[in-house]
Structure formats: C-alpha cells, structure tokens
C-alpha cells in the first residue's frame, strides 16, 4: 500500500512539474478575464476565454506522453556503468523490457542489471562479429516474447583527455570508432526492426558538441559529428514514423567511470611522444596529467543521483511530439553557453579557458619531462 502511494505521489509531482507553466498561465488568464468582466468588456471575455481554452488544449496536446508497458522493448548500448547503466535501471522501473549491451559480460554492471530483470548481451560496437550476434539475439528475443521495439538508445562512448598532439593514433581511432562509427553501425544493423516498429532513436550527445573544449578535441568532434548525423537521420526517417532525438545529459564525470583509465592513457601518450615534444611541453604535460588524473578515479557502481537527468530523459523517450534536442543543464552551463554564443571569439575563447580551468602554460621547455612512469600520479592511492 505504501509503495502504491509513493508511486502515485511521484506521478502527481511529475504531472505538476510538466504542466506548471500552463497552470500558471491559465490562472493569470482567469484573473484577467474576471478583471475584464468587472470593467464591462462583456463581449471580449467569451472570445478571450475560447482562446485560452484552445491554447491550453494545444499545449497539453503537445506535452502529452506515450505510456510504457512490459511488451515495449528499449535497447540501450553501453551499460557497464554511468549513464547507460542508470538509464537501463530507470527504464526497467518505468515498466519496459530493457535490452542492455555491455562490454564486459561478467562485469559488476552486467550482473546487477541481470538481477533487476534486464536482458544483458555482450557487445563491442567496433567488432562486426559482435554486432551480428547482438542483432540476431535482439531479433530472437523480440520474436520469442512478442515485444515491440520502442526505442534504441546509442550511449556507448569513450572520452580521453589530453591535447590533440599528445594523443596516439590508437586513442584517436578508438574514440572515432566507438563514439561515432559504433552508433552508426548498430543503428544501421537494427534499422529494419526500427522501421517495422516505428521505433524511436535517442542519440546521447554532449555539451562538448555545443561548445568544444580544449583537451577533448577528438571527443568533441565525435559528438558534433554524431549530432549532425542524427539531424540528417531525423529528416530522413520522419516519413517512416521514426523519431530521432539528441539527448544531452549534462556533466557527471565524478559519478561515472568514463575517465577511469585516464592515467593509463597519459602513460601511453608519454611513451609515444617524440623527444622534441617532451622537451617542448616539459612540466606542463606532468602538471596536466596530475590535474586531470585527480578527477579520473574509478567510482563505485551506482545509479546517477541527479533526478533532473531522468526527468529530461523521460521527455525524450515518451513525448508524443518530441523536440529535436533535450538538454539537462544547470544555470551555470546555460549562462556560459549563452555567453559563448553571443560574444566575439576573443572573449568567448577566454571564457572557455576559464570554464575548463586547466593548468597554466608557462612556456616551452620549462623543465625536462620525466620519462619514467613516476611522472604520473599513482592511481592505486
């Protein structure tokens, strides 16, 4: 009984939040209509009332949402931890049948999702054989359980911090293969099922697409490319009843493991760096490694705590008339991105650097770089 009350209260709160704008407008309009009536504008009041009713109806119509049922399947790519893991749990709580792909089939994320009733399959989006097996498994599951494919969520991503010249060819290639080509490949392989079920495609984008930042040039490029691809795909698939949406979930690096291997990435950069570059960057590289390694510790596997992420995500998943982009951003991000957009480059570049707050550059060759692994912080502490 308490669980039922909790669910009902939660739904009521969500309903009030979603329609709070129209409630406020209608209340203001009602007060205005009473004022007009008292002032003697009796013929104007019916016309204004009809306009208010029509506007309220259209607003509620636009804001209306579909319902989720157990025979609705949602595919989420990249669910080992972080956002993918959290969205898989949330979609399961909504009542959907969730199909989650993981890189590590025996990892803690896969095991916990399996305990929650999520269908977990192994998938490396850069491996064509894996893709084929995953698609066959999804097709079999949909047919066996008579499921309707409701949505594909492209979430798999790799982010490597480090200036562009430092990153190895393998690191750059990995980000391109997972973030951009991986999403394109899995979507293409699932497209026949997506068309048949008039499904929805949600692409996880990033604020780095809106404003690329130093240190993640390749990552920003993959997210910008992914968004451009999704925009064109949205226009192509609209006539088939397939909706394509970009979802920007916001920043939660400290709650995610997306940077857990950053120390090893820095070591690879140092090992492959030419001698000239080592002397040029010197202590700047070491300071950079220490700074960003401090925020790249592996975190405990937990569901993301920001409730706003799930509120915005539900709009992308359930709105009958969805927007092209859904963003979860704090007032700080909103102000920064507005300033980035309206200020000249000389000022916006300064704001971006202040926003990132990386270690300062003190000139070339300030100190010869320590070529040993001791130059990097010990991640075991």
Structure description:
Helix content is 56%, strand content 10%. The protein has a 7-stranded parallel sheet with strand order 3-2-1-4-5-6-7, sandwiched between helices. The protein has helices at residues 2-18, 20-38, 44-63, 82-94, 108-115, 128-144, 169-197, 207-210, 217-237, 262-272, 275-293, 307-318, 331-342, 345-356; strands spanning 72-77, 97-102, 119-122, 148-154, 200-204, 243-248, 325-327. Strand 4, helix 7 (169-197) and strand 5 form a beta-alpha-beta unit. It has 381 residues and is α/β, with parallel strands linked by helices. The relative contact order is 0.10.
Query: Helix proportion of residues, in percent?
Result: 55-70%
Which band does the percent of strand residues land in?
5-15%
- By DSSP, the count of extended strands is 7
Q: What's the arrangement of strands in the largest beta sheet?
A: 3-2-1-4-5-6-7
Distance between the termini: 47 Å
Which stretches of 5+ consecutive residues score pLDDT under 50? Answer: 1-8, 368-381
Q: What class, by secondary structure content?
A: alpha/beta
Compressed to H and E, one letter per element, the order equals HHHEHEHEHEHEHHEHHHEHH
| Mean pLDDT rating | 83
Tally of alpha and pi helices: 14
Q: What profile does the largest beta sheet have?
A: 7 strands, parallel
Computed CA radius of gyration, to the nearest angstrom: 25 Å
Report the principal-axis shape: globular
């Amino acid at each position: 009984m308490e669980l039922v009350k909790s669910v009902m209260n939660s739904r009521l709160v969500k309903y009030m939040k979603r329609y709070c704008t129209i409630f406020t407008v209608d209340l203001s309009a009602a007060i205005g209509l009473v004022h007009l009536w008292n002032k003697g504008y009796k013929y104007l009041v019916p016309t204004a009332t009809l306009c208010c009713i029509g506007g309220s109806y259209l607003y509620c119509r636009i804001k209306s949402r579909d319902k989720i049922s157990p025979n609705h399947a949602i595919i989420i790519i990249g669910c080992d931890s972080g956002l993918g893991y959290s969205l898989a749990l949330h979609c399961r709580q909504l009542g959907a049948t969730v199909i989650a792909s993981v890189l590590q089939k025996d990892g803690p994320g896969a095991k916990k999702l399996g305990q929650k009733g999520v269908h977990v399959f192994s998938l490396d989006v850069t491996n064509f054989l894996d893709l084929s097996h995953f698609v066959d498994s999804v097709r079999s599951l949909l047919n066996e359980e008579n499921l309707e494919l409701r949505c594909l969520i492209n979430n798999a991503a790799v982010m490597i911090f480090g200036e562009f010249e430092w990153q190895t060819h393998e690191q750059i290639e990995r980000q391109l293969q997972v973030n951009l080509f991986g999403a394109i490949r899995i979507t293409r392989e699932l497209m026949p099922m997506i068309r048949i079920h008039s499904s929805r495609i949600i692409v996880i984008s990033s604020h780095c697409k809106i404003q690329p930042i130093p240190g993640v040039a390749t990552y920003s490029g993959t997210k910008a490319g992914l968004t451009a691809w999704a925009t064109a795909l949205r226009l192509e698939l609209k006539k088939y009843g397939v909706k394509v949406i970009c979802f920007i979930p916001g920043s939660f690096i400290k709650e995610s493991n997306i940077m857990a291997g950053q120390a090893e990435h820095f070591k690879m950069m140092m090992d492959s760096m030419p001698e000239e570059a080592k002397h040029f960057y010197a202590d700047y590289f070491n300071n950079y490694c220490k700074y960003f390694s401090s925020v790249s510790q592996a975190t405990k596997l937990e569901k993301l705590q920001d409730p706003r992420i799930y509120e915005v995500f539900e709009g992308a998943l359930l709105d009958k008339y969805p927007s092209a982009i859904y963003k979860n951003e704090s007032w700080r991000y909103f102000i920064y991105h507005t300033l980035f957009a309206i200020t000249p480059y000389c000022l916006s570049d300064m704001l971006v650097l202040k926003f990132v707050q990386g270690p300062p550059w003190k000139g070339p060759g300030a100190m010869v770089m320590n070529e040993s692994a001791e130059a990097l912080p010990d991640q075991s502490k």
